[in-house]
Write a structure and sequence with these properties.
Length: about 525
């Protein structure tokens, strides 16, 4: 039976890929098809889904800075959105009941509030997957979206405690000890090395945090998130996150399949779910207006609001609880599962062209900005730069060091991760925080003296987007980019790169050339 799940998940995911859609849409479709064909979810599939969510939250923790949660745009934006959303949706549902829509006729005021509350959450699984696939999880808008999701998770845990009457045990305060044994975590990570033991350590920490929080009566997923946050400052946190990524993505396929197994819809339930999806633009508008009021830039507000405009898998948990308590009829679980699925599809499709959307409408959107800029949103001018290296991972950092040894202070580095930039500055790098896909950044930068931009990024989509933004900013210099695979070279050239280097081929050639210098007696063959 599990083979049938894998086969159909592959077929639907592959089909979505061919159509240019996010693969998660294919996995959602596979779940509904399997349900229609009479298959049922298994314990193994559910365990894989749960493991995927746990690893995902642990991975979020590894990339999360606690100080980000203390920013006003995160905690105040999240709480304000929940209150405004519940008010607006509750009034709308009441109006729909007044106009005689039968599906809402049996719901009273308090049930409307609870249903609106269930719809207020955004999907951690969907959003993180979209941001990771687009390489934007460490960007300004990506970190803002993740911060809002974490705040929503905290609210979710509090709600479950109140609704179920299940309070944490008297041992829960002892969890504070986890922060004081941080040096122990650091020592363990230093010893485990870089191989399979590092991956096993990640599993141990994620599942250990889950079980520990469950033992004291707190939602286990929150434990995985907290443990990740504790070790996030360690130098190996990024390496561990990358090592766990494939496992996490594979297990999360089980989660998307389980949504399809939740129930089969009737036409009435399908229409109701689509009706609930009509509220998604309202969610976007509320987020967008709130972020602007909190002095965020229009681009940051637009992209963060766009990716947050969906419904959450946690809403299924809330609705299931309301059904078990007799506050909602059982068919609402089907409606909500459909609405969540549809919202994933909407976000996946709409966010795919988000940067081009902003470029098209940015003049209108920027009219809503506040004149005062937050500290993180003030542009830095790379003084004296003639070369900019975008993306300061291993490849970009190596490129920067080589160029710096040749041209000195004429080279600057740029990366969207402020923590990485801070560390590199301490090492003497000329580096600035910046998202290369931000057309505002390029348009506000003096590009007249910039002769070369190197795009050392892992995602071909990111490189193509940045090339497009440079064109919009009237950049006339040269662009060089990195390709990981042979079939990526031509698309990058077509997008506007003047030179594309195959990462593995060029690394091999460089390795060979450097090694030959050890043998000066060997004559090299001159090419014609």
């Amino acid at each position: 039976m599990e083979f049938a799940f894998i086969l159909l998940a592959f077929a639907c995911g592959f089909g979505a890929k061919l159509l240019g859609l996010p693969t998660l849409i294919g996995y959602l479709a596979a779940g509904f098809v399997l349900n229609y064909l009479g298959f049922e979810s298994t314990d193994n599939l559910q365990n894989l889904a749960n493991l995927g969510i746990t690893l995902m939250l642990f991975s979020i923790g590894l990339k999360l800075n606690v100080q980000d949660l203390l920013k006003k745009e995160v905690w105040l934006g999240s709480i304000s959105h929940t209150l405004l959303w519940v008010t607006v949706v509750n009034l709308t549902l009441t109006a729909l009941t007044y106009f005689g829509l039968s599906v809402f006729a049996d719901l009273d005021f308090y049930t409307h509030c609870l249903l609106a509350f269930s719809l207020s959450f955004s999907s951690t699984v969907c959003i993180v997957k979209i941001l990771e696939e687009s390489g934007e999880i460490r960007t300004r808008h990506g970190k803002l979206a993740i911060g809002v999701l974490v705040m929503q998770d905290i609210v979710a845990v509090l709600f479950l405690v109140i609704a179920t009457g299940k309070a944490p045990t008297v041992w829960a305060p002892l969890l504070i000890v986890l922060f004081f044994i941080k040096p122990l975590w650091a020592k363990i990570l230093e010893i485990v090395g870089h191989g399979e033991l590092l991956v096993l350590t990640g599993f141990m920490l994620a599942l250990g945090g889950y079980q520990l929080f469950e033992l004291v009566g707190i939602k286990g997923d929150l434990g995985a998130l907290v443990i990740g946050m504790i070790i996030a400052t360690h130098v190996k946190s990024a390496e561990m996150s990358k090592a766990l990524m494939s496992f996490k993505d594979l297990f999360l396929i089980g989660f998307f399949l389980t949504i399809g197994f939740s129930a089969l819809p009737t036409l009435d339930l399908l229409i109701t779910a689509l009706l609930l999806c009509l509220f998604i633009p309202i969610k976007f508008v509320i987020f967008f207006k709130l972020f602007l009021m909190l002095k965020l830039r229009a681009r940051t507000s637009y992209l963060a609001s766009l990716v947050l405009s969906n419904y959450s898998e946690f809403g299924l948990i809330v609705v299931a609880l309301l059904v078990s308590l007799g506050w909602l009829a059982a068919h609402w679980l089907v409606i909500f599962a459909l609405a969540v699925s549809f919202s994933f599809v909407v976000t996946g499709l709409v966010y795919k062209t988000s940067h081009n959307q902003y470029t098209r409408y940015k003049e209108a959107l920027k009219h809503f900005e506040k004149p005062v800029r937050l500290k993180e949103d003030i542009y830095v001018q790379p003084a004296g730069a003639q070369i900019i290296v975008v993306g300061l991972g291993r490849v970009g950092k190596g490129a920067y060091s080589s160029l710096n040894s040749m041209v000195g202070g004429k080279v600057w580095g740029m990366d969207a991760d402020p923590i990485r930039i801070r560390r590199l500055k301490e090492q003497g790098f000329q580096a600035m925080v910046g998202d290369g896909e931000d057309v505002d950044l390029w348009e506000n930068m003096d590009l007249s003296n910039i002769e070369l931009v190197l795009l050392a990024l892992p995602s071909i989509e990111d490189i193509c987007n940045i090339t497009e933004q440079l064109k919009h900013a009237n950049y006339i210099g040269k662009i060089a980019s990195i390709a990981r695979y042979e079939d990526e070279i031509q698309p990058l050239l077509d997008a506007g790169s003047d030179k594309v280097f195959n990462f593995f081929t060029e690394a091999g050639m460089g390795f060979a050339e450097e090694s030959l210098r050890l043998l000066p007696t060997i004559n090299t063959v001159e090419k014609d």
